[in-house]
Each structure stands twice: as structure tokens, then as C-alpha cells.
Amino acid sequence: MNSREITTQISEAADSLNLKKWDYGASFSNDYSVQVDKGEAKQLKASQKQILTIRVWNQSNLVGITTTSDISDSGIKKALKQANIASDFGNKNESTEFSPLAKEPIKVNECKKRNPVGIKKLLTLLREAEVKLMESHEAIKSVPYNGLSESFFERVYANSDGAFRSYSKSQAVLYLYARAKEKNNKPRSSGSVKLGYGVDDIDIESCISEASNKTISHLNYSSIKTDKYLICFSPESFLTIINAFSSMFNARSILDGVSLSNKNSIGEKLSTEALNIYDDGLHEKNISSSPFDGEGTPTKRLCLVKRGKIDNFIHSESTARIFKTIPTGHAGLGSKVSVSTDWIVVEKSKEKYDLKTSLDHNSYEGEFVYIEELNAIHAGVRASQGSFSLPFDGWLYKNGKKISIESATVAGDIKYLLKNIVNIESTQEITTSGISPHIWVDELSITGDA
Amino acid sequence: MLSSQIKSNEIVFGSCNKDLLEEIIFYGIGLGADFVEIFIENADNSNVLAEEDFITSVSPSFGKGAGIRIFKDKKDGFVSTNDLTKHGLMRSVSQAIEMLDITDNKKRAVFHGLNKHRDYSLSKRKWINQVPSIHEISEKLLFSTKSLKKNNKIITRKGSYSRNLQEVIIASSDGTYVTDIRLHQTVGLNVIASEAQYRSSGSRRFGSSGMPDEFRLWDHEKAANDVFESSMNMLYADYVDAGQMPVVLANKFGGVIFHEACGHLLETTQIERGTTPFDKKLNEKIAHESVTAIDEGISEGSFGSLSVDDEGMEPEKSVLIKDGILKKFISDRAGELRTGHKRTGSGRRQNYSFAAASRMRNTYIAKGDYSKEDLINSISDGLYCKSMGGGSVGATGQFNFAVEEGYLIKNGKLTSPVKGATLIGEAKEVMPKISMCGNDLELAPGFCGSISGSVNVTVGQPHIKVDSITVGGR
Asked: Which residues of A touch B390 (CB under 8 A)?
């Protein structure tokens, strides 16, 4: 059954139950993945999945919802009935409607779908990658976390008002995390992740060399003294921090009282005038891009921070109505519609700014800590309070030498961090979660055990 | 006895599916598989959210699916599908066989049929009618969020409830044929308190397995008082100074330190990967002699308890560490096959779309002889971690977890509250430093995310003292 037929099936079932207003979001996927262990196939996996989320509005215009993997006639009818029952408990204080933009035309780029290469090729490629990575340095003893996968999926949104959107796509992921050990030293681990629309789009060689170089660069390690340091955030680690505190730009979080911002925060100065932050779900480098959100609203580029000040919030249909603006394409379908960022792009503004441009991670000769990757975000971030305390992988640069830091955390407050940005390097780098240059921040606390 | 004996071309829950399942397994063995396992699930879930004084979300969901795993030598192929027809299941078997590149079907494994039927579901079928209705849940959640409204510093109040009812059929070529029903309920309360520039939050979660009345019996007033007090105590707290210091970890969720720091490293998946420092340490001392640690799935009603694991084995009580000596690893079928450690009834998965893996259940440090006061009195300058947040363990065994509610210890007494603390360490180094265990063992529910998805567990311990650990702060 294709997505048009499912829409017809839902429409007919809704008619038979006298349900006049409904919408649904669905995802249909086929995934294939392999893992290897020292040349041997470890686990090979395939899955076929379908998820359907149906919303129903009752006569009082309250919304109920049900999610199911059963798209048979009986499954769809049961889902509609359950959603109708759930609508009795619909939120009377915050109504939900169809997105006014759910029928706006959008352009769907079909070239993002590749053909499957099949499990055997996935296995061959991953085996070869594992061998190459282990041969790249004698200290690399294993690649305990590895995987190569390809997914093919279709996403759909439709409603009883005639909106219908669908796109299909493919995506492939390769990850290689090596473990290295030298005599009398602790094991060290690092890795690399690469995404592509298909397996053939993934640069396997660069994934191997990145995983190898990163792992080896941590072999020579030392503890760090607890103190405040000048920090250089890698593009990846800065994006991790921004994403962890994206509730600052999230209208849903503001309404729920769990954001550091409030309704009047547009225009609030957060950082240096040199800082611009966008959410750009449709960016050509965003492999996971989706042309529309869970409510069918088209995805678009939105400026969140302009010259250091909050410029926009991200919205669903209902938050946009409350804030008297339009939805921004950031909604996730649910009983309570969620709002989240897509793909963060950080850049240095073209306006005048006051930055310490001598701070460049390739050439700066003074003492600083380079944070390559932040870990355990779920444990160490208090988004509603603005604080974080996070373990990281990185290096101490001191007296012209670079040494990997053993077991340390960086702690602080997001507003303090943003206010203390002292340089934004000019070159942006593409990561799996967005784009950012290296960002320098002064005086952040590092805890080590030296 | 099963309710009916229908021969069907599709899996029918509540009926006997023996013939169909045997046909599927014979098909897999005939194609050359060493072992065939079928896990079929019918899930019926509900989530309810109360914010302030309103129900803001009611989310029911239901679905069916199957996960089919084929072993050949030490390799395995896993296929999941929503298609529970004979055709769909056979297609999945074929796909797994093809993935494993099995072409030689001459050396056939032997399958004698599904002759080991165990039905754990009989007494549980009534549960669905005994669990609270959405109306009853909503009412109690609203009472609980109302109970959190104790002063005007509380700016956000939330209560959430989740119910997962899972009916499973597990069949495999060793003759295992199991049917079971699992019920898990959790309820959580969260607040954010604020005054001027100060902010704090508090949260608690409660959970049970197999006890339909548990939510009704939940003391929401007591829970609300606990969460409120925690948020008030932490509202004006200063950031903790970072450094190395002795800590006392509270009982209940304090057990997350053992779960993260050590428990994961005792799962056979970690031996398979070569990422545990405890491989080859069986019967050697890996912890202080005051530490005895247990993982079991049998405590009645505990969040990590189960009648049977997701591979059809009844859970055992595994003494992992006895008086500091490593005694056992947590093992599943693949773990036994690849590492030689006997299965412990710990093969677990989030749902049909994951292959089972060795996972913890109810994991705790056994009680010792000391009172909480004995532990605190023994420290002149340190940290008391009353409430823990989440944590994680890295690929090289380094762990960290957040302290949600902490107090400084000065000269053997609890003093001012502190926030922003993170405990950082490595299992191998911390385990020998757990020098005192209290006599007040208690368990707390949680969710553990790992290779086979998110599974419900309990962590637990009495109050324990760690002689020295790195505390991250400001």
C-alpha cells in the first residue's frame, strides 16, 4: 500500500466513524546494518518498520492522538477510535489547529534517494575499513564500536483539509571507534562518523584516517590541573553546546517555563556582535534534511541569533499562534506538539566586531584547552538552569606542546559562555550536526585530577 | 492451557501459534541455520502528562512486530518486521539466512519441535482491566501537581505517567516456547523553582513491574513533598568547588554509580568488544572487600524484574561480586556463545526491533553494617550526594554522573547545599575505594539505554562511602 492509498484508507475509516477533522504523520522505512569484529561479521540486521500517528479533533475541537505500527484496516480504525477517546482529554487551554502552511508548495529534491547496495557490500566495506584502521597504527588493538548502515524511508503528512506531503529518501552512516593501548598506559579511544545519502557517497577513507588520527593523538595523555582556562571549542563541541541549550530559542520551552528565555527575549543580547546562529534544516550539507515538519509546515532557514542578539524563536502551529507569528517548520507531531531545532549553522557576522583574532587553533602559541568532543550531554546539562558540567575529549596546548587530557570536565553557564566568546574563527567546518567555526571562550572551569 | 488451538497463517495473540512457529523454525533450520529464535510482541502503551493544573497530553499507542534472529557459528543475523503473516515471517527468515550468506545446508541442526512450552501469561491477562483508566490517572496526576504548588517560587510543575503492557511470544529451535505478559508503570514528578537570579529543579521517578494497583497505591503527597523540599534546598545553593574528595552516596538512585561504573563492564557484550577491564578477572579481587554486588530479575514488583527474559530463560539471581571478588558476568545467548559465560536470564531488548543483549535488571550493592551517620561522621571534608542525575560510561571505562542534590560535609556533619557537581572516575579505580556500606539498602527505578535499546531497570544500594573521587564543578 502506498502513502496515497493509506490516506484514502484513513479518510474512509474516519468517514465511517463520523470523524470530520483529522491529520496524520507516517514513516515507512527499510534499514540494513552490519557490525564486524576483527574481520568477522558480528551482527547483521535488517528491519522493516511503519509508524503511523493519527490526530482526531472531536466536536469540541479538542485533539486526541494515537500511534500505531498496525496499518491494516482494523489497525487504522482502532487508532482513529482510540484517538477519538483520547480527545476527551484534549488540552482545553491550548488549542491545536492544522498548520496554515500545510498546503504551501514545497520543492522536494528527489536526487537524495540512492539505491541499496545490499548487506554483502556493506559487510565487505566495513571489514575492509576495520582492517585498514587496525593496520594504521600498532597501538590500535580493536575497533569495538563500528557499523555501516543504509536506510530507505518515506515520510508523509496529510490532513482532512486536503493537505498531502510526502518525500522519500535514503541515508547511510559509517562509524568507526578505535581502541588503542600502549604498554603501561591506559586504553584510549576515539572515532569518526560519516553520513551520506548512500553508501557510495560516504568518504570511507577519511573516516578511517580521522578515527586513526584522533585515537593516536590521545595516546600521549596527562591529567590536567583544576583551574580556569582559555578554551577553544571545536566546531562539533560548540554545536553540541548550542543544541543542548536550544531551548533558549524554543517557543514551546518558553511557554512551558523551562527555557532561559521568555516571550520578550527577542532582541536580548547574548554574545558578541560577531556571532550569528541560524537553524537551516534545508542546508545542502544536512543529510537528514526534511522538507516539512510534523505538522506539514515547510522547513526553512531561520536566524536565531543576529549580531549577538536573539532574533527569532522556533515554532509549531500553536506556539506561533500564541506568539502572533507564523509556524517555522520545527514541529514534531504528538499529543503535545514538540518543537526542536534541525541543523544549526554558526557563523561570524560580516559586521564590525571586536575579537581577538590572534586566537587561531592552528597557530596560537599560548596556553589553552582544545575541546574536541563533549560527552554525556544527557547527564551534565541543566537546560532550564543554564548550567553544564561535561566530560570531554581534548588537549592542553602549553609551551608549544599538545598533550591529550585524561578524564576531565568543563563546567559553566551557557550565558556566561556566550558572553565570554573572545574569538570566532573565520573558517566554518561541516559536522554531522551542523556547521560552525572554532569558537574561543575565556575563563571556563576545568576539573582534572592532576 | 491456551485459550484456543487455531491453525492460522498469521500470528494470533492469545491463541496457540505452535504449528506456525514450528513451521517457521523448521524452515530456518532447513536452510542451514544453527539456531533460530523468534520474538513476537503485541504492545499497548499509554502516556499521560499533567502540567500545572491541566492534562496537556494523553498519548496511547499500540503495535505488533516480530524480531527473528538466526545464528550460524558465532555470527548472527537479525531481521525485524511488522508483518506477522506466515509469508512475512518466512521472508524475514530468508532475509536473515541470505545476510549470513548461508549456502551450506547439509550440516543441519536438529529441531525437535516446540516441546518446552511455558505460559507465564495466564494469571496476567486480567491486568489490562485492572490498570487505572486514563480518567483515574489524570485525576491523580492533577492531585500530585497540585500538591507541588507549595509556594510562589515553584514556577513549573509536571507529573507524568507511563504504562507499557507487552504481550510476548518467544520460540526458538532449542524447543523454547514461551508466552508472557509484562506490565510496567512509571510516574514522575518535576518542578522548577525560581527566585531572582536563582533557579533549581527537582525530580523523582517511581516505577513497578507486574503490579496493576501500584499507581493507585503511590503516595503522591509524600513524593510531592520530597521533590519540593529538594528544589527548595537547592535554590540558593552555590556551585561546588571541583577537586578530589571523599563522598557519601545516598541509597536508592545512588546505585547508579555501580550501574554505570561497574555493571555495564560486567555485561558479556563488553567482553565481546574487548572494552572491559574485568575480562579475565573472574575470582580475582576487583573491589573493596566491603562490596558485594548483585544483579537479579526476581524481586517482586521491582522495575527490572521479569518472569522470563527476552530469550525465554527465567531470570536468576546473579552474585556478581562477593566480598570484592568478581564471581560472575551478566550473559545472554550470544554472550554465552561468544564468551563462554553461562546465560543468566539477562537477554533483554526494548522491543521486537532490537536483538536481545546481556543487560542488567535489578542491580545493587548489598547492605553492610554501618549507619548513614557512621559514613558521614568518618569524613572531615567531602561531599554528600543525596540525589543523583543520569550518567554514562565511555568506551574506555571512564564514567561520569551528575549530582542533582549535594551537600558539603565538614567535620563529620552535613552543611551547605551545593550544585553543579559531577562525579568522574574509572570503575577499576573507584571500586576498591568503596570502603563503607550502610545498612539501609533501597532500590530505585530507572531506564538504561544501550545496545538493545532502552530497558527498565532498578539501581540500588545502601549509603556508601567512596574514599576519593574526582568531583567536577566550578
From this structure: 376, 378-379
